[in-house]
Amino acid sequence: MTRLTPDSGPIRSCSNGPLPKWLEPRARFSPNGHEFALTKEDALEYLDWCQKEGLRVLGFDVWTAADPAPASFEEDSGVEGNARECRDAISSRNFPGDPLFNIWVDLDDTAGSA
Q1: Residue 11 is inside which H or E element, if any?
Q2: For residue range 92-114, what is the model confidence (pLDDT) as tens digits?
């Protein structure tokens, strides 16, 4: 089981995965604040961080950028897959509008994290 370490830095626990505090100011949150989504550039950076930390990525949903909180796209807009597959899909697919990526991480794989 992978565990985040003190070297991982401060983390905000969210229901879709751990969010490094350095990415928190750039994240968009669901109305209840339990889930986050990121812009394309930040999502790619987050996927790199997940790989570096040894976290198991499960896939992502696509949200639209709306105020005050993001809204979900159609159910079939996301991808199920690991960090590499998600990175490839985010990099190569043409998502309409101003998409945000709600990336899912296996929370059982982060047990014991700070």
Answers
A1: strand 11-14
A2: 998 888 899 999 999 886 543 33
Cα-only R_g, the chain? 13
**CATH number for domain 6-106, candidates 3.40.50.360, 1.10.3470.10, 3.30.190.30, 3.10.20.30:** 3.30.190.30
| 57 Cβ contact partners less than 8 Å away, ≥ 6 residues apart | 47, 50, 51, 81, 82, 83, 86, 103, 104, 105, 106
How much helix, strand and coil, in percent to the nearest 5, is found in the chain?
30, 30, 40
Threshold 0.90, pTM exceeds:
no
Mean of pLDDT values over 64-84: 79
